[in-house]
Design goal:
mainly alpha, elongated, single chain
Length: about 400
């Protein structure tokens, strides 16, 4: 077949879109390759963006409406190029040929961004958007690929890209272009996808990204994890009131998940709000979850530590003894009891020698048990036993403690 040479005749400049379509028709006539068509289309777009159109074309831009239409036409050409590349990769996938998965997903995002820009110009030019219905229907068919793209990049460890895909998917619900679809009500995937957006944001320390969709993610099934990520984000952003509120919400929702209890207790201790910390411990012990042996031990141990700070020696001893009943292999209650007895004996005068000696012997008993259970914790038990042996005048033991200090 005889192939005609490509004509050097200049392309007619009217609108970018009409020029492009004329050239496509001419390309078919002269059997020019598709990539050449795309290249010329891009040249048209760049020319219009850079203001390098021929003088006769510039004269036609006589109003704001004409200017907007030229921009719309240029963006349509960009979209046509993106769609062409997308279809090529998609065809390879359909034919089970080797294709670029990342490129396919990235082109999806680009098409959403391009037509989103076009929609804004369309609204600015036309009171009733001219292209919205057609473009939104088309993009709705591609929207699931934003979800799939997020999953793909999350599996690849590219958390930044994964978040962008999830974010774009969710943000469609807020855009006027998709208002008729009412995604917040009709798309059951939204909360689940918001959760994975939180995960992707958290993995890259994008704290604002975590908070952006946390309320939506809370509607899914992993509320405890959502609240934990939300609390961590508030802490990292130094938003302490919101951090404490989230911990409280988490504790109320899931008291058995000790992250919230521990964080809230520490929050009170950091501010020396010991009464609030103690109230929280008592509240935790009154919950049904405290019937679990390990949880009851955990809450009780926190309570004993607070009582120790408040110098409520007898109450601390009582709670610590309850913990030993629950778990005799747990070493810290022995130390706390020994410290409490020593602290009770310390201020007694010589006239109260008998009572003081009795308390010191009780302190010695529990501290030696703790020493035997935790021989490597010398910094904790050695100074106390040194004082106990000294006050009890136990020379041999005293000298032994001296060597451990």
């Amino acid at each position: 077949m005889r192939v005609k040479k490509f004509s050097n005749k200049p392309i007619e400049w009217g609108s970018c879109n009409s020029s492009f379509m004329n050239y496509v028709r001419r390309s078919k006539e002269y059997n020019v390759r598709a990539w050449h068509t795309v290249a010329v289309a891009l040249m048209v777009i760049l020319s219009s963006m850079l203001g390098t159109m021929p003088a006769d074309a510039k004269k036609k831009v006589t109003s704001k409406s004409d200017s907007l239409q030229l921009k719309i036409d240029s963006i349509q050409n960009v979209f046509l190029s993106q769609k062409l590349n997308y279809d090529k990769e998609n065809e390879k996938a359909y034919l089970k040929q080797r294709y670029d998965t990342a490129k396919l997903f990235n082109l999806t995002r680009q098409m959403f961004a391009t037509l989103g820009q076009l929609d804004s110009l369309d609204v600015a030019k036309n009171k009733k958007p001219k292209y919205r219905k057609k473009n939104s229907e088309m993009l709705d068919g591609y929207r699931r690929n934003l979800y799939n793209g997020g999953n793909y990049f999350l599996r690849k460890g590219n958390n930044k890209e994964a978040f962008c895909f999830y974010d774009d998917y969710i943000e469609c619900a807020k855009k006027p272009m998709f208002e008729s679809y009412n995604y917040n009500e009709t798309d059951s995937l939204m909360p689940q996808l918001a959760f994975w957006a939180l995960v992707a944001a958290g993995l890259q320390n994008n704290h604002h990204g975590v908070l952006k969709h946390s309320d939506l993610a809370y509607k899914w099934v992993r509320q405890d994890q959502v609240l934990q990520m939300q609390a961590n984000a508030y802490m990292s952003l130094d938003s302490i009131p919101q951090y404490a509120q989230t911990l409280r919400k988490g504790f109320d929702y899931c008291p058995s998940y000790t992250y919230f209890f521990n964080g809230l207790v520490q929050h009170y201790l950091d501010r020396e709000e010991l009464d609030s910390a103690l109230m929280l411990c008592n509240e935790a012990l009154s919950r049904d979850v405290a019937s679990d042996k390990n949880l009851k031990k955990h809450f009780s141990y926190s309570k004993s530590g607070i009582l120790l700070k408040q110098q409520k020696w007898d109450e601390c001893i009582t709670v610590s003894e309850e913990i030993i009943v629950l778990d005799s292999a747990f070493s810290m209650p022995y130390y706390n009891i020994g410290l409490c007895y020593f602290s009770k004996a310390e201020p007694l005068s010589r006239q109260e020698k008998k009572e003081k000696r009795s308390l010191l012997n009780l302190s010695r008993k529990y501290l030696e048990i703790y020493r035997d259970m935790e021989p490597k914790e010398k910094k904790r038990w050695a100074p106390l036993l040194y004082k106990v042996y000294f006050d009890l005048n136990l020379g041999k033991h005293f000298r032994e403690m001296e060597s451990n200090l």
